[in-house]
Amino acid sequence: MLKHRGFPGRLAGTDFQFVIRRPNPKGVTPLAPRERFRDRRPPDRRADAGFMQALWEHFGNEPFERGNLDAGRLNWLFGREVIPAEDPFDPESYDALLRINEDVARISFPDVFEGSW
Questions:
Q1: b or e along 79-107 (b: 16 or more beta carbons within 10 Å of the residue's beta carbon)?
Q2: CA geometry: angle at 74 spanning 5 and 102, to 5°?
Q3: 3-class secondary structure for the chain?
Q4: Per residue in 72-107, pLDDT tens?
Q5: Is the pLDDT reported for residue 115 higher than 90?
């Protein structure tokens, strides 16, 4: 499992984690889209935006390996702002390649991309 050096471990001042320390001994948590409802709590929305900002600052529009990125946090963005970068895609692999769907991400998180056109 690739460890993304320099990637923030969590959202500053919160317990919203962005990375995991070691592989899950019971198996890899699969990536699957989770629906974000309009009535989500503001801290959850800030965590999504903070994670997207960290992804953008760390990887930009280049494909990246899933590695030690937290599946729970990725699943809130997966299938919309973060999409597979390879075909076939294995949702249960730490080596799976992902990329940011920049057009969708700019609409979903305009504050993250402000001034970066």
A1: bbbbbbeeeeeeeeebebebbbbeeebbe
A2: 90
A3: CCCCCCCCCECCCCCCECECCCCCCCCCCCCCCCCCCCCCCHHHHHHHHHHHHHHHHHHCCCCEECCCECHHHHHCCECCCEEECCCCCCCCCCCCEEEECHHHHHHHCHHHHCCCC
A4: 999 999 999 999 999 999 999 999 999 999 999 999
A5: no
pTM tops 0.85, yes or no: yes
Rounded to the nearest angstrom, the gap between the alpha carbon of residue 46 and the centroid of all alpha carbons in its chain is: 13
Token pair recorded at residue 8: 């923030």
Task: Extract the tokens encoding 84.
Answer: 């597979």
Amino acid letter for position 110: P
